[in-house]
Amino acid sequence: MKVSVLQENLAHGLNIVSRAVSPRSTLPVLANVLVATDEGRLRLSATNLELGITCWIGAKIVEEGSTTVPARTFGDLVGTLPNDQVDMELTVRTQTLNVHCSTSNTDIKCIDAQEFPPMPVPDLDGGVEINVADFKEMIRQVVFAASTDEARPVLTGVLVTLQDGTLTMAAADGFRLSVRTAPLSNSNGQNLHAIIPGRALSELARIAGDSNDSVTMVLPPGRGQVVFRMKDIELTSQLIEGNFPEYQQIIPGTHNTRTVLSTEAFLKACKQAEIFARDGSHIARLSITPGSELEPGSVEISAQSEETGSNETVVDATVEGPSVLIAFNVRFLREVLDVVGTPNVALETTASAAPGLIRPLGEDNFLHVIMPMHLGN
């Protein structure tokens, strides 16, 4: 293998794929990045056997070939090279990669590419096309609600379904539920049902950057995998086996009190309450009071800590229904308000011991259910 590539392109490609490198593995080759020539371009791939990322970058190919380079060593080295042409040449017999750039000359010991797990080439026919910007927003609005507890693997994933031209993503961790829907213009009449690891979707949103292209999602039959293909980038992830909870049963069908308040004011109040709630159980109390003819309604958000003190913030609100005192995990409140894209948000409550429902005002494609906490005295 003998190739020339620009330092910034190589650094960019390594930054994309390095998140799939396995830091602790019994297979030494999984700590490496596959570097291979591929139809006039350079292909970089990394995998931890659950998640795999491939990136193609422009290169001048003098001699075809492939090898696997230690990811950390290679990434650190390329990051320190000048913004210039990088020439790489592999000595196959010793599996040594010579990296030459400007006045820098380095030899890196590699592992034969034959030992790298094969990255299957998916058939993209029959895939579902989604606008990258829309898909990133969908991921942002659900993935934070997925569990990080490996004890229930199915809850660490996001349920992705496509039915009758509508794409739905749902995530739940037992204390909250996020559901986001979007119509797809070209679903080809397909129906899909898969539980995709939350981490894989987070990585996809990260590497998609700010591109306005589309991403093609494919579920190759019988492989238990999902493949996302964008321009010059491909991400493959194992699917999670199991049955996702029947989340529709958790969504409250009715409410007694509906409170509409400024998203920004509510978020700021929750951030203040969190400073004092984090020492305890993250409890914030919401005292919701309807208004009168002369005064608007209000929500008092309060939190206290034995060690640090207490905080109360009152936010003006439009309240329909009786007053209610309810407590939530304030971190959960802050995290959902962080992903609400509308100026105002509605909080629907039934009783202090029943779940609350949060909806962005004016958008019916997103909802979030959050379980109440015990009020104590």
Task: Describe the structure in your own words.
The protein is of the alpha+beta class and 377 residues long. The protein has three domains: 2-115, DNA Polymerase III, Chain A, domain 2 (Roll); 129-209 and 237-247, DNA Polymerase III, subunit A, domain 2 (DNA Polymerase III, Chain A, domain 2, Roll), CATH 3.10.150.10; 251-370, DNA Polymerase III, subunit A, domain 2 (DNA Polymerase III, Chain A, domain 2), CATH 3.10.150.10. It has six helices and 25 strands.
List the helices and strands and how they pair.
Blueprint: E1 2-6, H1 7-17, E2 32-38, E3 41-47, E4 51-58, E5 60-63, E6 66-70, H2 71-80, E7 85-91, E8 96-101, E9 104-109, E10 128-131, H3 132-142, E11 157-163, E12 166-172, E13 176-183, E14 192-197, H4 198-208, E15 214-218, E16 225-230, E17 233-238, E18 257-262, H5 263-277, E19 283-289, E20 297-305, E21 309-320, E22 324-329, H6 330-338, E23 344-349, E24 356-360, E25 366-370
Antiparallel strand pairs: 1-5, 1-7, 2-3, 2-6, 3-4, 4-17, 7-8, 8-9, 10-15, 11-12, 11-14, 12-13, 13-25, 15-16, 16-17, 18-21, 18-23, 19-20, 19-22, 20-21, 23-24, 24-25
Helix pairs in contact: 1-2, 3-4, 5-6
